[in-house]
Fold this sequence. Notes:
Mean pLDDT: 94
Order of helices and strands: EHEHEEHHHHHH
Number of strands: 4
Distance between the termini: 37 Å
Structural class: alpha+beta
Helix content: 40-55%
Largest sheet: 4 strands, mixed
Strand order of the largest sheet: 2-1-3-4
Shape: globular
Amino acid sequence: MSIDIKLYGNSASPYVRHCQIALIECGMGYEFVQTDAGLSAKLSPMQKIPFFEYSEDGQIKMLTDSTSILRYTREKSGQIFLATVEELNDYCSVNTLIDAQLNLFLLKIEGVNSENVSYLKRQENRIKTGLKEFEVMSFSEQAPWSDAELRLACFLAWVRFRKHFSLKPYPNLNNLLDRLDIYPPFIETAIVDS
């Protein structure tokens, strides 16, 4: 069985980066297609990134969410994706933080801020309380990293890169990020200015 894989996305996205790391960890070759909002609106019915196209035995299929891409990647290589309910919960909680920060980021670009929008203030508070919760958790000291840990590190690296807010109040999370910063698949997918 032959498999051709294309991952569409923006290399700065924590969702996309996590998919790239999983593909590297699983030894699955893939083509990365740098994608903006216009192209994702044309090519993906969900009009977001990442999305993933693969061909198995001549049949082209598409996955339109990072979680389904990760599950496909892990299961194709014989791994278990999100083995426990606790890991699933942590993974989903990180997704909530990413979505909240992404909304704040995109709305700021549009000129909307949280000063007089209570919904946006709630998003900011959600990020703070969520990070406080993760700050007191224990993390792996080295690979293999869980997908929840990888997702969290991708989020933290994105926050650091975009300078969304300071990570100084979170020494435990900074230590996790320091450990991942020297992990070869994390290095290979590092966010760079374009």
